[in-house]
Design the sequence.
């Protein structure tokens, strides 16, 4: 299952790369990648797919330490500690492996990631992933951020965020764990990640895709995007 999903995900990144280098003028409504995803109504099946192979019940016990910072149900209160509620299980696992190997660095998380075996990691990831998806306050948000998110910038960012992160940043599809949920995430956390992708202090996205995208963004656009994404 994991293998098949990975192949789909790799295929999608390739597709994404092809579209990055050509003009991407399709509107949100007609884009085959984003059409039909209903971010609000989630089936049990979708939640299961998003959670990955782990056991969420076992994961609740095993994630006590993590809950201390990320919240009992994956809703953290500190704006620089990411919410994990409804995040893809396989994305959570990938990030933990990246913190362990040093591919992603952060003083606290490099220590927290510790030495965790595959089974425990899958269970912990499934626990947070199976929670109701993180949510913002639902306001309309920043107009520049909305425009950038849905359509990009015709002169620079050809591939808008929605093409990979899905409608309202809620993910593209329950089976495609490569593109994290960002809608409803803390504004300060989103802003910081975009800034460190741009400065290449974070380089763990596949093929450096987020570095390429963030490199094209101004401070004003980063603020606007962070504001728009966080209220979704
Ligand atoms: C002392 C507080 C603290 C504890 C305990 C903690 N974390 Fe974190 N976690 C953070 C902070 C801060 C970040 C943001 C790091 C960054 O900016 O790279 C983070 C980031 C993450 C991310 C990246 C999320 C994303 O959206 O990319 C994951 C996954 C994660 N933590 C999982 C865990 C798990 C699993 C545990 C338990 C084993 C845990 N954390 C324990 C503070 C904590
Ligand atoms: C071609 C696909 C693609 C596009 C377009 C894209 N992203 Fe991403 N983004 C990714 C992938 C893949 C990751 C996961 C990186 C990883 O595995 O660490 C990511 C990660 C992120 C993260 C970090 C999330 C976290 O929890 O740490 C943020 C924030 C983000 N993207 C914002 C954006 C914004 C804003 C845009 C539009 C300007 C955008 N992305 C456009 C593919 C994309």
Sequence:
């Amino acid at each position: 299952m994991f293998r098949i999903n990975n192949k789909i995900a790799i295929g999608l990144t390739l597709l994404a790369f092809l579209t990055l280098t050509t003009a991407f003028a399709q509107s949100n409504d007609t884009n085959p990648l984003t059409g039909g995803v209903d971010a609000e109504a989630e089936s049990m099946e979708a939640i299961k797919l998003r959670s990955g192979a782990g056991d969420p019940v076992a994961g609740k016990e095993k994630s006590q330490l993590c809950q201390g910072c990320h919240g009992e149900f994956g809703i953290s209160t500190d704006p620089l500690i990411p919410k994990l509620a409804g995040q893809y299980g396989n994305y959570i696992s990938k990030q933990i492996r990246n913190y362990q190997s040093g591919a992603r660095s952060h003083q606290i998380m490099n220590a927290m990631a510790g030495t965790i075996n595959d089974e425990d990691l899958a269970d912990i990831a499934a626990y947070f992933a199976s929670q109701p998806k993180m949510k913002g306050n639902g306001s309309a948000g920043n107009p520049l951020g909305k425009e950038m998110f849905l359509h990009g910038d015709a002169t620079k960012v050809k591939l808008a965020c929605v093409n990979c992160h899905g409608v309202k940043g809620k993910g593209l599809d329950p089976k495609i764990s490569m593109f994290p949920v960002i809608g409803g995430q803390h504004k300060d956390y989103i802003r910081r990640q975009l800034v460190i992708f741009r400065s290449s202090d974070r380089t763990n996205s596949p093929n450096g895709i987020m570095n390429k995208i963030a490199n094209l963004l101004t401070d004003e656009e980063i603020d606007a995007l962070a504001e728009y994404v966080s209220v979704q």
Summary: Residues 16, 82, 94, 148, 157, 159, 161, 163-165, 178-180, 182, 190, 193-194, 204-206, 209-210, 213, 225 surround heme C (ligand 2) (CB under 6 Å). The radius of gyration is 17 Å. Residues 2-36+136-230 form a domain with the Cytochrome Bc1 Complex; Chain D, domain 2 fold (CATH 1.10.760.10). The chain has a mean pLDDT of 87.
